[in-house]
């Protein structure tokens, strides 16, 4: 029978490996001396990555002169915690034995159908390899949980392309997943580490296809009316946190506007979700403060990105092209500097500690103990009532603020935009509980309203940023004044459009 692999992956810089090997916790909890293995892994798929598209990976690995085939499939990755179904068996050479593998599979999926297809088998071939020096410690924690701690150093290779590997894997052999995070947080006190959400297989596919790891939008979110409130909370919050983490590598790279934008959206969705449930479940204050720190660290860069790439690009006149180009350049330089600041924040030990601590809290039992003492059917019924109640409150708040849109100033429009954004996120969280057509139309109307208000907010923020440019570069004050006047004139027309979008939204009925 296949196992569900549960492991936490952490990047470690090569310069810190010597310190890690001397870490007192390894010596304290190790059940024996560490074992060193030299491993060669060969990953198989078709040129069109059919296995990958079916959410599976197939590897044949040699360690200590023994070849083992492994199929990993399904599962999920969140907060660095990798949970995948895993089946493996010994093979006699450096290629998979699909007949033996099919007999092991006890969780069905698209991968099972592929392995049974003669056409697929004919197209299967090696696509990349890993060459790894692996050091293994078998640990037993005071809690009784058993963890296999692995240090991997080596390379992923395809043709003449290579990607270095330097990572720690903490695999749970027995006990609670939360103990993985406890141990990782303890390691972090002496050795700087970073969450690694990409597996070696995912990195190998990126290398094989010569593709970049693209920005990740919010994933599909499915709730069931049979869920309890705490189950819905976990699914929603984990969905938001996964979006944040999935975009972290792109933000660390320091030059991707879209990764930073999607990470910011993930943070906003997370904060909206936490507020949605705050009457029942309260995030510890120290974690709230750390989320605010992270939000501040990436928001400034996004504001300058919008000014440089969107707001200024909307100005259509040839009369001041040269001067406008100088303002764009100044905004781009400011954005680039703030991207470096955001990259440093997301690549820091503080960020890693936040991710591990938040995941530990989400997996822990403390917040569940504060839930109302309801049982079985009552708690399930409560989810349906809870979602409807929350959405009705959101709608009342939005309609109350929306009535002030006529002759509204920037501050009032900002309040309406925040209410619309919160309403949209929360409706999307519960979308799968309601008839799809009704919900799609309602969310679409909300999205259009939010976009219209968002543009006006971009203009208001842009005006403030332009004043900063003029202060830093006095020679640009003339063109800065022209741009602000141009945008103000545009805003008057756009305000009328927003009021029309508001009327369209008001006509929509809340899904129910």
Give your account of this protein's structure:
This protein is of the alpha+beta class and 512 residues long. It has 2 domains: 3-209, Hypothetical Protein Pfu-838710-001, CATH 2.40.320.10; 229-506, CHAD domain, CATH 1.40.20.10. Helix content is 55%, strand content 19%. The chain contains 18 helices and 9 strands. It has helices at 17-21, 24-29, 50-53, 98-104, 110-115, 118-123, 177-188, 200-209, 229-246, 248-253, 257-276, 285-311, 321-346, 349-363, 376-402, 410-429, 436-472, 477-506; strands at 3-11, 35-45, 56-63, 66-78, 81-91, 125-140, 146-158, 161-174, 194-195. The protein has an 8-stranded antiparallel beta barrel, surrounded by 4 helices. Strand 6 (125-140) and strand 7 form a beta hairpin. Helix 11 (257-276) packs across helix 12, helix 12 (285-311) crosses helix 17 (436-472) and helix 17 (436-472) packs antiparallel against helix 18 (477-506). It is globular, with a radius of gyration of 26 Å. The mean pLDDT is 90.
């Amino acid at each position: 029978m296949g196992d569900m692999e549960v492991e936490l992956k952490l990047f470690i810089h090569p310069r810190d490996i010597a310190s890690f090997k001397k870490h007192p916790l390894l010596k304290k909890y190790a059940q024996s001396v560490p074992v060193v293995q030299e491993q060669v892994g060969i990953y198989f798929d078709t040129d069109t990555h059919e296995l990958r598209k079916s959410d599976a990976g197939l590897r044949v690995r040699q360690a200590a002169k023994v070849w083992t085939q492994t199929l990993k499939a399904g599962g999920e990755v969140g907060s660095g915690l990798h949970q995948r179904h895993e089946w493996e068996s010994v093979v006699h050479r450096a290629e998979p034995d699909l007949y033996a593998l099919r007999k092991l599979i006890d969780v069905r999926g698209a991968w099972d159908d592929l392995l049974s297809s003669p056409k697929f088998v004919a197209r299967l071939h090696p696509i990349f390899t890993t060459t790894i020096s692996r050091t293994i410690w078998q640990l037993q924690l005071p809690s009784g949980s058993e963890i296999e701690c692995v240090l991997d150093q080596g390379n992923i290779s395809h043709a003449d392309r290579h990607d270095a590997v330097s990572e720690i894997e903490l695999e749970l052999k027995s006990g609670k997943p939360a103990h993985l995070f406890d141990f990782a947080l303890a390691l972090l006190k002496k050795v700087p580490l970073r969450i690694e959400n990409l597996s070696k297989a995912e990195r190998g596919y990126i290398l094989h296809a010569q593709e970049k790891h693209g920005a990740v939008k919010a994933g599909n979110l499915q709730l069931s009316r049979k869920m309890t409130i705490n189950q819905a909370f976990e699914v929603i919050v984990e969905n938001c946190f996964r979006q944040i983490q999935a975009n972290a590598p792109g933000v660390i790279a320091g030059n991707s506007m879209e990764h930073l934008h999607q990470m910011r959206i993930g943070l906003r969705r997370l904060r909206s979700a936490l507020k949605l449930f705050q009457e029942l479940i309260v995030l510890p204050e120290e974690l709230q403060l750390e989320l605010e720190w992270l939000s501040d660290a990436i928001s400034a860069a996004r504001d300058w990105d919008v000014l440089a790439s969107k707001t200024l690009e909307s100005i259509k006149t040839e009369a001041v092209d040269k001067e406008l180009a100088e303002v764009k350049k100044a905004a781009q330089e400011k954005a680039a500097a703030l991207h470096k600041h955001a990259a440093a924040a997301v690549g820091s030990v503080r960020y890693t500690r936040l991710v591990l601590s938040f995941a530990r809290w989400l997996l822990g039992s403390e917040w569940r103990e504060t839930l109302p003492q309801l049982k079985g059917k009552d708690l399930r019924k409560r989810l349906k009532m809870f979602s409807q109640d929350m959405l009705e409150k959101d709608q009342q708040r939005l309609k109350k603020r929306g009535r002030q849109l006529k002759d509204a100033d920037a501050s009032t429009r900002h309040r309406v935009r925040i209410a619309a954004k919160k309403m949209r996120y929360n409706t999307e969280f519960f979308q799968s509980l309601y008839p799809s057509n009704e919900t799609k139309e309602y969310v679409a109307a909300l999205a259009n309203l939010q976009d219209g208000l968002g543009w006006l907010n971009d203009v208001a923020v842009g005006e403030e940023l332009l004043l900063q440019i003029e202060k830093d570069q006095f020679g640009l004050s003339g063109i800065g004044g022209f741009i602000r006047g141009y945008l103000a004139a545009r805003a008057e027309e756009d305000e009328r459009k927003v009021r029309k979008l508001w009327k369209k939204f008001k006509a929509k009925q809340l899904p129910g």
